[in-house]
């Protein structure tokens, strides 16, 4: 399929079967969508806050009624395990509910001034473009869309080329729930065509981009021509730091799914396992059976923990990192059709090797030893990325010290959790710009206006 093809073929990554073909949006389609969105946004922003909140809650309830259908669609188009896909559809519902709760709480401030009253208003930006990746098509689309709508904006969502189906279904559900026509539009298309048209369109006030760091930089540079607002959620190469004083059994049991979830196609994947040298060998003894027992297979099977990679391109990319000379632990993966790659942990790797510094975006991690706390922090920070990370230790002081020293936006101690819709999420360094989710999510879709009213005139 060429970059300019007029259609997108959607393939089931577990079978390589083509399950749908959808038209690819052109720049003219984007321009027409901006006209519709601008009209819809004006009316939406003029609605009473309670009414906007009520419609968003209805959208959330409609998604809730369709969680199973959306999840099954995600399994077919993205190869996600059924359990993950159900969580993802539920996450869209929860994001909409949470954002709806913010509509009536989106308050400005009253600031004391002499000679009058000074107030601030948080006004919507207008039309927001959301450009989503294929790795978590539904949640990531909703991270931008739900708060943007709640803050009074219209949204044009461009899903990734390989995963447009759940986004299209969400747009239908929005209309079904009573959201006005044109307020939330989904335009599947090629990144350099439809995505780029959104970035370059002067009528789009903000771009929320989630994807690779390379494209994120282009989006920021092109958007700068209009001083366009951006939120960028980009790549990661996150550390999982295991100190000798940690509960090693628990840390080893938790490590596999911290980088194998979604077949490693997760920007938060803990793909650099940093282990204190004194427990390095013991940790590997515990890790090996945990990796070997991960169940990889048909993502629609409820017992499966890991499905296929999204595409042949992604599979080739992952293979290019794991050369035959590298030692390590390898799990099992199905043979035959489908983009399968086994869980893989590489040992004895040079910390400067490509596989140790670049984002593989597949089920591959490296284990690197460190000597002491300072060495652990140095290694953890020896990356251009700064998205997430985990720290395993029984020493509370160390947990806090290391949390404060690792330059990343989302850390967890004695756990690998990093994403909750009600806590902030985003990257340091080349992992991103801005924050999504959490209590300030709506404010990121507003401009602050300051108004002084004289009491002396
Ligand atoms: P990608 O950058 O190739 O594509 C992401 C989106 O951008 C797609 O919709 C694509 O069509 C579009 N796009 C591509 N070129 C464009 C252009 N020139 N102008 C405008 N839009 C364009 O990334 P990908 O391979 O689909 O996704 C994987 C990447 O996403 C990984 O690097 C991963 O770490 C990152 N990611 C980050 C987060 C986060 O929250 N930080 C979350 C998920 C994924």
Automatic annotation (TrEMBL):
Its EC number is 1.2.1.39. Gene3D superfamilies: Aldehyde Dehydrogenase, Chain A, domain 1 (3.40.605.10), Aldehyde Dehydrogenase, Chain A, domain 2 (3.40.309.10). Keywords: Oxidoreductase. GO terms for molecular function: phenylacetaldehyde dehydrogenase (NAD+) activity. It is an enzyme of class 1 (oxidoreductase). The active site is at residue 233. Residues 3-451 form the Aldehyde dehydrogenase domain. Belongs to the aldehyde dehydrogenase family. This is Phenylacetaldehyde dehydrogenase. It comes from Streptomyces calvus.
């Amino acid at each position: 399929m060429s970059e300019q093809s007029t259609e997108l073929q959607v393939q089931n990554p577990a079978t390589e079967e083509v399950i749908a073909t959808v038209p690819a949006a052109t720049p003219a389609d984007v321009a027409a969508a901006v006209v519709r969105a601008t009209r819809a946004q004006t009316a939406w922003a003029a609605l009473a806050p309670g009414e906007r909140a009520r419609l968003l809650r209805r959208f959330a309830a409609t998604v809730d009624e369709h969680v199973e259908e959306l999840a099954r669609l995600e399994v077919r188009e993205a190869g996600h395990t059924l359990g993950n896909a159900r969580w993802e559809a539920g996450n869209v519902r929860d994001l909409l509910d949470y954002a709806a709760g913010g509509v009536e709480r989106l308050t400005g401030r009253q600031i004391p001034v002499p000679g009058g009253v000074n107030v601030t208003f948080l006004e919507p930006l207008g039309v927001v473009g959301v450009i989503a990746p294929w790795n978590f098509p539904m949640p990531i689309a909703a991270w931008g869309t739900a708060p943007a709508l709640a803050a009074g904006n219209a949204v044009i969502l461009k899903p990734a080329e390989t995963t447009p189906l759940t986004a299209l279904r969400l747009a239908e559900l929005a209309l079904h729930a009573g959201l006005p026509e044109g307020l939330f539009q989904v335009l599947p298309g090629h990144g350099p065509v439809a995505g780029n048209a959104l970035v370059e369109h002067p009528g789009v006030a903000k771009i929320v981009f989630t994807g690779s760091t390379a494209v994120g930089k282009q989006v920021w540079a092109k958007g700068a021509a209009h001083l366009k607002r951006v939120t960028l959620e980009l790549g990661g190469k996150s550390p999982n730091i295991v100190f000798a004083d940690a509960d090693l059994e628990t840390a080893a049991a938790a490590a596999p799914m911290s980088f194998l979830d979604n077949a490693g196609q997760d920007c938060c994947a803990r793909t650099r396992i940093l282990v204190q040298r004194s427990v390095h060998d013991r940790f590997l003894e515990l890790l090996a059976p945990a990796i070997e027992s991960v169940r990889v297979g048909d993502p629609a099977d409820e017992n499966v923990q890991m499905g296929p990679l999204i595409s042949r391109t992604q599979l080739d990319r992952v293979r290019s990192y794991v050369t035959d000379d590298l030692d390590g632990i390898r799990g099992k993966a199905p043979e035959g059709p489908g983009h399968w790659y086994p869980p893989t942990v590489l040992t004895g790797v040079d910390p400067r090797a490509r596989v140790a510094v670049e984002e593989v975006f597949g089920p591959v991690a490296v284990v690197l030893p460190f000597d002491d706390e300072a060495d652990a922090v140095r290694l953890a920070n020896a990356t251009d990325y700064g998205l997430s990370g985990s720290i395993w230790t029984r020493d509370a002081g160390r947990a806090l010290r290391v949390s404060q020293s690792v330059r990343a936006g989302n850390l967890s101690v004695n756990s690998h959790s990093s994403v909750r819709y009600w806590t902030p999420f985003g990257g340091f360094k080349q992992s991103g710009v801005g924050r999504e989710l959490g209590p300030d999510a709506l404010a990121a879709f507003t401009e602050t206006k300051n108004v002084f009213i004289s009491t002396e005139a």
